[in-house]
Amino acid sequence: MWKNVKALDSGAKIIDLFENDANRAGDFSVDALDMLFDYSKTSITEKARAALIDLANAAGVTAKRNAMFVGEKINETEGRAVLHTALRNLGGDPVVVDGADVMPEIHKTLDRMAQFSEDIRRGVFKGQGGAITDVVNIGIGGSDLGPAMATLALAPYQDGPNVHYVSNVDGAHIADTLRGLVATTTLVVVASKTFTTIETMTNARTAMAWMSETVTDPASQFAALSTAEDKTAAFGIPASRVFGFEDWVGGRYSLWGPIGFGIMIAVGNDAFRAFLRGAEAMDRHFQYADFMDNLPVMLALVGIWHNQICGHATRAVLPYDQRLMRLPAYLQQLEMESNGKSVQMDGSDVAVHTGPVVWGEPGTNGQHAFYQLIHQGSRVVPCEFLLAAEGHEADLVHQHQLLSANCLAQSEALMTGRSINVARDLMAAKGLVGDELERQARHRVFPGNRPSTTLLYPKLTPEVLGQIIALYEHRVFVEGVILGINSYDQWGVELGKELATALQPIVEGREAADDKDGSTRALVKYLQTRSV
Ligand code: F6P
Fold it and tell me: What is the mean pLDDT of the chain?
């Protein structure tokens, strides 16, 4: 299946592809839902694209996509449907799981969330000291990264209480967050699909102890977002402040429902629904657009081209949008927890490398940090730029234009590079001659021919943010189908969790480290002898 496509990595120079096709920018981009996804600055040719589309067809992307949307149990290793799309199915068309339509319950929960968040925002729901000023969301992984990223992204729309996110079990995180908050006007929201995650439960107990120092009935200022109502009740949170969902919502896909409660508190129900509407629009686009005009499909095929065909092991996500500063971290979980696997659905080994290492920082900060390596390092890093046509700061349009110029300059520089002859001319103009001119010129050469894509969107509104996130979710799906893996389990996180549980009594000195390896024993010994 892969052979035909691999043979198409001709090593063609990207810039030459523009010479040969005056319409390359238009031919190798997708313009849909007000977005423009430009992948013309890659080495993909018409033939390569056709072969990539064949690859998607051969892998059965259409059938699997349809199976996902109708609630078939495509998460085969956990025996679950994959239905985060139902959470944003505002149209409400029935989605049937195990013989029952799940939509009425989803909308009921959404309405309950809206009611509670409005009560909080309007001061109807009060803490012991009055209206809620601060909300602390305690969760980790999918119960943190998505909502934290989206809350920050939608800062211009925030008109509710401050929403803080605590994830790390490192006590520094919760201590730094709670310091300065007033317990009597703070609501703690414990976000955990399973309500067993040790980091979250430890932080939740720390928050409860903190609350009980000043609040007479501390549990009255707690709410929970979870699938495990028995466990939330055992923690002392009444059902009226528990917002549930089903196990067919994967953790890293869960910000569209109760796990997104922090976003809703920050921006309100209307903006949250606009966010869902954006994702729903991307769902429909993904379902019905031809592959060549399909944003998630083409984003995925470009990813496959760079990673599996050209062999580039990493992917830099570079939002020229400060409020998307947590997007790379969010995508690390979405992409690497989903597609960081080595075994296919049927238990056999995957024949090619799977998900790339995803990393990045917002521009222009990254330019002054790691872009040196991207431009002149010995490895090729495919770059994914994101940029809005318009910022939110009406009085700082000139800064947005400067930001935009920087973004476009980077993809241009990556592609065109700078030849040795141009570098020599530059050195000659500085008055250098002979060996010194040659030596200095060599350092100023940019190899160029480095691939990048650019995703442009009108403005980072709730609706557009919903589209962007759903776009990346579906990209992960398509890449996973082509690789033949299950993108919806995460067995690779389990071993470390088990060993941490076993190591806890050893670190605490209650058990001996005798059966541990030499390195682990030495590390434990250092920690025990150096801690007070
Ligand atoms: O890291 C593993 C994981 O299971 C993630 O998939 C999930 O998002 C995270 O832990 C948190 O899980 P929970 O929401 O159950 O606390």
Answer: 97
Taking the C-alpha atoms of residue 171 and residue 10, their distance in angstroms, rounded to an integer, is 52
Residue 141 is predicted with a pLDDT of 98
Atom of ligand 1 nearest to the CA of 490: 6
The H or E element spanning position 332 is none
Q: What residues have CB less than 8 Å from 421, skipping those under 6 apart?
A: none
pTM over 0.85: yes
Instruction: List, for residues 367-379, the tens digit of each pLDDT value.
Output: 999 999 999 999 9
**Burial of 65 per CB tally in 10 Å (0-12, 13-18, 19+):** buried
Residue 9's pLDDT is: 75
The model's pLDDT over 201-253, given as tens digits with 9 standing for 90+, comes to 999 999 999 999 999 999 999 999 999 999 999 999 999 999 999 999 999 99
Closest atom of ligand 1 to 226 CA is 14
Positions marked catalytic: 337, 368, 497
CA of 252 to the centre of ligand 1 (A): 8
Mutation choice for ligand 1 from 144, 493, 495, CB with most ligand atoms inside 8 A: 493
The answer to whether 417 and 451 are in contact (CB under 8 A) is no
**Cα 260 versus chain centre, distance:** 14
What's the pLDDT tens digit per position in 76-96?
999 999 999 999 999 989 999
* CA 220 – ligand 1 centroid, Å: 25
Residue 272 CA to ligand 1 center (angstroms) comes to 23
Q: From residue 504, how far is each of 204, 409, 499, 526 by CA, in Å? A: 19, 50, 9, 15
Nearest ligand 1 atom, CA 200: 16
34: its two tokens = 């007000």
- d(CA 188, CA 211) in angstroms, rounded, equals 9
Residue 250 structure tokens: 């994967």
**Local structure of residue 387 (DSSP, 8 states):** E
Sheet holding 35-38, edge to edge: 29-32, 35-38, 452-457, 383-388, 314-320, 357-359
Ligand 1, atom 6, residue with closest C-alpha: 251
pLDDT of the residue at 143: 98
Q: How far apart are CA 239 and CA 241, in angstroms?
A: 5
- How far away, in angstroms, is 249 Cα from ligand 1 center? 11
Q: 375 alpha carbon to ligand 1 midpoint, in Å?
A: 36
Distance of CA 97 to the CA centre of its chain: 27
3-state secondary structure of 173: helix
Question: For residue 398, what are the CA distances in angstroms to 123, 391, 431, 468, 474?
Answer: 39, 10, 36, 25, 35
Residue located nearest, by CA, to atom 2 of ligand 1: 493
- Say which residues have a Cβ less than 8 Å from residue 70's Cβ, sequence separation at least 6: 95, 96
Task: Say if residue 364 is preceded by a cis peptide, omega within 30 of 0.
Answer: yes
**Ligand 1 interacting residues, C-beta cut-off 6 A:** 140-143, 192-194, 197, 200, 251-252, 337, 490, 493
d(CA 477, CA 304): 12
